[in-house]
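for ur thesis appendix - Solute carrier family 15 member 1. copy paste whatever u need, i formatted it the way the template wanted (i think)
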Amino acid sequence: CSDFPLSIFFIVINEFCERFSYYGMKAVLILYFKYFLHWEDNFATAIYHTFVALCYLTPILGAIIADSWLGKFKTIVYLSIVYTIGQAVLSVGSINDLTDHNRDGSPDNVALHIALSMIGLILIAFGTGGIKPCVSAFGGDQFEEDQEELRSTFFSLFYLSINAGSLLSTIVTPNLRATECGIHTKQRCYPLAFGVPAVLMAIALVVFVIGSKMYKKVKPQGNVMLQVSKCVGFAIKNRFKHRSKEFPKREHWLDWASEKYDKQLIAQTKMVLKVLFLYIPLPMFWALFDQQGSRWTLQATAMNGDFGILIQPDQMQIVNPILIVIMVPVVDYLVYPLIKKCKINFTPLKKMTVGMFLASMAFVAAALVQVQIDKTTPVFPAAGQTQVRLINLGVVPATVQFQPKLQSVDVAPNEATGYMTFETSKLKSLHIISASVNKTEPLQLQEGQRYTLAFKRGLLGINSNLIWDNVTSKPEEGKNLVRFINNYLFPVNITMDDIAFGVLSPLSASNYSVIPNQEWSFLIKASMPPVSCTVLSKKFGYGGAYTISVDDCTNYRLNVTHFEDIAPNTVHMAWQIPQYFLLTCGEVVFSVTGLEFSYSQAPSNMKSVLQAGWLLTVAVGNIIVLIVAGASKLDKQWAEYVLFAALLLVVCIIFAIMASFYTYVDPNEIEAQFSEEKKEEDKKDQDDNEKEAEADSRM
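the 3d part is after this line
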């Protein structure tokens, strides 16, 4: 460390803070769209992937600005300012109280929040993307040519800071989001979840600027991507000009650039384009990979996150970086050597093919998990339908007939049926028979609604009450809905912890109240002057709805019955680990190998072109997701997972065929050959000059 330039530590700290800022914000973004802006899943997914695609398109712009005009230092500073402003705008846009003038807990001007959020995200995309290709290269510039070992150590520290920042932020920001804050009403704390990354980005900028006088700043020397683009453009233009048969064909279409560009640049461009051609199928891998932050996080919202401590849906993304840390050394030092011992020629392109296959299987695993989730998802009435459920609060069995002659159901004492679906126009009344006493309940039902008929056999006949449930979806964010029915003969005042349900008359029901998920029971208290009785509730699950009937009181102990209206999330989040494991294994053999292969096949001065091409495949992959999410007509999420798995499997086969025709090259040999040719040409020119000089002297 004593030999390290002091400026390096400012760069490493800057990168840690920036990555914390980016990944922290990104971890909670999809849930912000879903729960704060109230966008439906497909639209939220499309916007999320539009943002990610923009983050991977802008690095090309950042590299061109840095190499051609401003230089790396100024580019990093200016775009970091843009980045910090974007984070701040996003944080302000997520403040609920900004437009909640009537203090009902919902923004009154959602359009303003959307506008601020989109402006913030666009600025962030330009900021993070623009500095992405500059920071690591700027760090490399701080070392002299003979400090190769120190430079290598720096890059290790640099990537360690990236992983540390992303790992910590994925733990911290979902917890910040899950807390409640607000001036007038308590809401999920998105301003804090976005505000902390904004502060970290501001710190990153300040730290980077502090080291300004210590940095070695290399002046802009032109961008090789522009040179390659001009060479390719000129070759195409020249070939089009000479398209008639009178002009002889050339060995390669890029040879048409030889009139303007030297042979070495053309040969190097050929090598680059040869690799870029193999990049064509790669976006499909990223289309699946980047859905960890969108579809898989949304999938986790419908699952049980009880690991002893409550894990937030967006915290499941942390499984990927943890597995990366474990799997990279396992694959490098165990799997690959074993394959080598088996004398299998496991080339880089074969490794990438296996990575694609594993990612495809990860989505098959996600589809299987989704099928199990769908089994626990309630089915609500469609247009023209109504659902009715029966609760027998008495001690005598009963039979209920749905008139006219639609269905007959037996209901045991203190039991409830499930919801039964009927065509609204056909269901006219309910006929209740209990212990030779009967009653007809006329019905006036609304389409698309759920109702509960609570009844009991009393001393003077059958008492009943048709209750409108007013629930059209499963509770979100793992919260629960709870209501009470009074099974007493006189009014009862009911509270549960500090939540008041009011005074309920006999057989009447309270409205549903949202109950936070917690690891302990609630204290239910029923006041019946002159006495009050209490009891602890059952432990509620995650995302369920419950009706609790208050039955009677014995020695100040309240007797209650819990009825499950909507089943809680029963599929555990741990079932997502296999799909994360498969995808991470795919990433290890695909992404790491892909970059290694690209760099091994590229000339030394063309590596930035391949890095730009690699980032472009990530952007295109995200564009594929937003197209599918926007255009998909699939009703079931598991079917979409299967679709993506099938698409990647097809692309995997195509890539394997393309790879089989690829011939590996050694760019160093080709560069050495050109270098030798240049030396011979220079020597020949020198000999010619000497002969010319000798001839002149004789004259």
